[in-house]
UniProtKB/TrEMBL annotation:
Pfam families given in the database record: DLH (PF01738)
Taxon lineage: Eukaryota, Fungi, Dikarya, Ascomycota, Pezizomycotina
Protein name as annotated: Dienelactone hydrolase domain-containing protein
Domain Dienelactone hydrolase: 23-159
Entry GO MF terms: hydrolase activity
Superkingdom of the organism of origin: Eukaryota
InterPro entries: AB_hydrolase_fold (IPR029058), Dienelactn_hydro (IPR002925)
PANTHER family: DIENELACTONE HYDROLASE, PROTEIN AIM2
Length: 163
C-alpha cells in the first residue's frame, strides 16, 4: 500500500468520503452477487477473496459458496473463520502485518476444529499483497504470485470440477 494510505479512513469513509467499505455496505453486495449467480442456475459457486475481500468471502460463505480461496487475508475475525461451512484455501505471505505469523497459526488451529478441508500455503520473502501487486521483474515475487494463482485454480477444480 502507498506509504500515506489511510486504510482505516478508506474502510470507514471510502475513497471519496461517501462510500464506506464496512460490513453494512459490502455484505449486501456480496449476497446479491451470490444470489444472482444462483438465479442464473449456478449450483456450485467458488469465491476468491484477496486482502480486504477475504473477510467478505468468509463472512458470506453460508449464502451459497461451496469452496473458497483467500490470498493474504486481512481483518477476518477468528469467529468468522470458525463459522465456515466448507473448504478453505489460503495463500499467505511470510511478511504480512495484516495476517502475521501468530494470526496464521491461530487460524490454522481454528480451521482444524471446523471439520472442513483446509489448506494454508506460506510464501516466504513476500509481503502482504503479493498475489496482486508482485513485481514481475522480481523472480521470488513472481513465483509466489503465480503459485498462489495456481493454488486457487487447483483448489477450485478439486472442489467444483466435474470429477
Amino acid at each position: 500500500m502507498p506509504e500515506n494510505f489511510d486504510l482505516n479512513g478508506w474502510i470507514a469513509h471510502g475513497s471519496d468520503g461517501n462510500n464506506p467499505h464496512t460490513a453494512e455496505q459490502i455484505d449486501p453486495i456480496i449476497i446479491a452477487g451470490i444470489n444472482y449467480m444462483k438465479g442464473l442456475g449456478f449450483s456450485r459457486i467458488g469465491a476468491a477473496g484477496y486482502c480486504f475481500g477475504a473477510k467478505y468471502v468468509v463472512r458470506n460463505y453460508s449464502h451459497g459458496i461451496q469452496c473458497a480461496f483467500l490470498a493474504h487475508p486481512s481483518f477476518v475475525e477468528n469467529s468468522e473463520f470458525a463459522a465456515i461451512p466448507g473448504p478453505l484455501s489460503i495463500a499467505a505471505a511470510g511478511e504480512d502485518d495484516y495476517f502475521p505469523t501468530h494470526k496464521r497459526h491461530e487460524t490454522e488451529e481454528i480451521l482444524r476444529t471446523t471439520g472442513q478441508e483446509y489448506q494454508i500455503n506460506l510464501f516466504g520473502a513476500v509481503e502482504h499483497g503479493f498475489a496482486v501487486r508482485a513485481d514481475p521483474e522480481d523472480r521470488v515475487q513472481r513465483f509466489a504470485k503465480e503459485q498462489a494463482f495456481n493454488q486457487a485454480l487447483v483448489w477450485f477444480n478439486h472442489h467444483l470440477g466435474e470429477g
